[in-house]
């Protein structure tokens, strides 16, 4: 189950080339059936972020499979552009990614990239989130939040109209919508309105909608930071060091939406090693 919906299908293998290197018998899944949310975004597939083979078929995620073959290290990353993305693996990825400085977040030792968000802020309003566990998840298009936190954000943004489970507003309000900051281990990760909103139609009329959604009873953690958050940054995932690096990417300020950025403050995020305060969770990434 992704944050975007549910899938079912078949397990298969394929030979792929990664950086000119031929890698044989890489496991992947063929989606035969899926809920509507899987098909609503323009993607060809998902490169999962799982750190261990936790599924019933014991299928290793791509990064784990390649490392187990002795071909590359456990580091991998994503270089995002406005309309495309590049998956990279290897050492010293900071020298490869075009970044303006990488801020690292320590994560829990386990199968997922789990941490806690201290709080969310919009202008001078702060919303506490420290009671909830959070996960970085490329399989989720939106940002999934507990309902009370989602509604607090909507109140600050002045959004209340709900249509088919999505909160919508007049697109003319976009220029006044402020960046949203996620405070994680002493760092502030900002996303702009171009990342947390999208255009849609309501009864044939053009409207705008937010990319936040409520979690459900089946959501294994309180917060899923999906692509609406991740796309604002260049990313490095370091399994052995138990940390994720985020750096603001160039081009994430499209259509005058403002510039995404990271405010970096030396903190516990500078300390190597895995956190151990949370239990394993069951989320397909």
Short description:
The chain has five helices and 21 strands.
Describe what you observe in this structure:
Helix content is 11%, strand content 38%. Strands 4-3-19-20-5 form a 5-stranded antiparallel beta sheet, with no helix packed on it. The chain is built from 5 helices and 21 strands. Mean pLDDT is 80; it is low at 253-260, 264-272 and 276-285. The chain has a domain at 72-83 and 91-270: Acid Proteases (Cathepsin D, subunit A, domain 1), CATH 2.40.70.10. The termini are close together. The protein is globular, with a radius of gyration of 19 Å. The longest helix has 11 residues, at 147-157. A hairpin with a 2-residue loop joins strand 1 and strand 2 (21-34). It is mostly beta strands. This is Peptidase A1 domain-containing protein. Keywords: Disulfide bond. One of its GO terms (molecular function) is aspartic-type endopeptidase activity. Belongs to the peptidase A1 family. Residues 1-247 form the Peptidase A1 domain.
């Amino acid at each position: 189950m992704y944050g975007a919906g549910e899938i079912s299908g078949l397990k298969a293998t394929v030979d792929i080339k990664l950086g000119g290197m031929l890698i044989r018998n890489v496991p992947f899944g063929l989606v035969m059936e899926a809920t509507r949310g899987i098909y609503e975004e323009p993607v060809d597939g998902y490169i999962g972020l799982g750190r261990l083979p936790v599924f019933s078929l014991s299928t290793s995620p791509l990064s784990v499979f390649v490392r187990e073959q002795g071909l590359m290290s456990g580091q991998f990353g994503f270089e995002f552009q406005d309309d495309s993305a590049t998956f990279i693996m290897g050492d010293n990825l900071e020298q490869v990614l075009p970044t303006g400085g990488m801020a690292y977040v320590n994560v829990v030792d386990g199968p997922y990239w789990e941490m806690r968000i201290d709080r969310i802020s919009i202008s001078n309003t702060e919303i506490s989130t420290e009671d909830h566990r959070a996960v970085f998840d490329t399989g989720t298009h939106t940002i999934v939040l507990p309902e009370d936190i989602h509604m607090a954000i909507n109140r600050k943004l002045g959004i209340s109209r709900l249509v088919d489970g999505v909160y919508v507003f007049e697109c003319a309000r976009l220029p006044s919508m402020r960046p949203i900051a996620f405070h994680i281990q002493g760092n502030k990760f900002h996303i702009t309105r171009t990342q947390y909103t999208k255009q849609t139609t309501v009864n044939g009329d053009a409207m705008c909608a937010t990319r936040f959604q409520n979690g459900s009873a089946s959501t294994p953690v309180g917060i899923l930071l999906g692509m609406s958050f991740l796309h604002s940054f260049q990313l490095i995932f370091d399994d052995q060091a138990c940390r994720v690096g985020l750096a603001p990417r160039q081009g994430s300020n499209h259509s005058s939406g403002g510039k995404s950025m990271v405010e970096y403050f030396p903190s516990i995020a500078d300390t190597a090693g895995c956190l151990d305060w949370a239990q394993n969770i069951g989320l397909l990434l």
